[in-house]
Design goal:
This protein is an alpha+beta fold. It has 3 helices and 10 strands; from the N terminus they run E-H-E-E-H-E-E-E-H-E-E-E-E.
Length: 183
């Protein structure tokens, strides 16, 4: 048995917003049985996925996150609409994308300094609401008529999560919460 943990850092959403998004999610998706619908308690904005980390790497991530969180104070995020990104149906972030991207790049740099592999792909801030089956056309599952809602909240912290894979989907466990602007 491995002592590694699958880790990622994200901006969390307030529980009241997760409930609102669950209703929005239901109005957007056609035939959700043919999709892997994301549970509302799992909603977040991923900043960086580290993958399998040793206890030493986790400690270095935890030590580095306060410096990254200190680079910006709390800020408002607005999300709205619906689109496809890779193999997912997502709600895009429409405001303060540059702040989110900067946080993601800071975490990506942290990953490189602790010897974790990093990718060069662009950071595209969004909330995943469903995953597609291979070869599916995202437009076959989205109802554009309902995609006009906008939601706002203040991002106040970075969270280090553990992702545990199970037969019924991933379970995310909060390991560390670091306030933005603290330091």
């Amino acid at each position: 048995m491995s002592d590694t943990q699958r880790l990622f850092v994200a901006l969390p959403l307030p529980m009241t917003l997760k409930r609102e998004l669950a209703l929005y999610q239901g109005s957007l998706l056609r035939n959700p049985r043919s999709l892997k619908v994301i549970k509302p308690e799992q909603f977040h904005i991923t900043l960086h996925f580290f993958g399998d980390c040793t206890p030493e790497q986790r400690a270095m991530i935890e030590a580095g996150l306060p410096d990254i969180a200190a680079t910006t104070g709390p800020f408002e995020i607005e999300i709205g609409g619906v689109s496809a990104f890779l193999s997912a149906i997502v709600i895009p972030v429409v405001t303060n994308r540059e702040l989110i991207i900067a946080l993601g790049l800071g975490i990506r740099q942290l990953a490189g300094t602790i010897g974790m592999p990093t990718t060069g792909h662009a950071i595209n801030p969004h909330i995943t609401i469903a995953r597609l089956k291979d070869g599916d056309n995202p437009m076959d599952h989205m109802d554009d008529e309902e995609a006009e809602e906008a939601y706002r909240w203040d991002a106040k912290s970075l969270v280090l999560y553990q992702s545990t894979l199970t037969a019924s989907g991933s379970i995310y466990t909060e390991l560390l919460r670091v306030p933005l602007g603290a330091g």
